[in-house]
# Entry
Amino acid sequence: PGYTVNAVMENRNRFLLGIGVEIFRGPGSETDGCLKLLDRMKKKVGWKLKTLGADKGYFSKSFIDSVFRRRLKPHIAAKDCGKARSHRRVRRMARSSGYYWSQRCRKKIEELFGEAKDRHGLRRFKRRRLEKVREETWLIGWVLNIKRLAKLIELQNAFC
# Structure
């Protein structure tokens, strides 16, 4: 089977705070996986997330409504299609500066996924079965975080 990976990222230093892996079963697997990851982050970490940046693949009425119910602002790349109230709310939100900066930060997580695919094997998993693929994905996430942490420590030592 194929797998889909969702991640929650801290925007300032690009640390991955959570990674979720689901078996791919269509477009719904990405949105369902994202909602599960958000719920897990709220329960385990306890941080209050404010916004959710996502690409056009997440611009569905049911997903947007679920994000609003979680009291998050969905900064989702807006499409011209969709006439539901939630679609109109997201398109109105797209005019704000917060939306603009959220979409800029969304590009940063795409860069992380690109790095993970090019340099760390996220493009093709070496292991099989969902639990083993999750372990492999977490290892790749830890490597990415350690690289960011090393860069921060290097910068901190340069200024001391």
Notes: The mean pLDDT is 88. The radius of gyration is 17 Å.
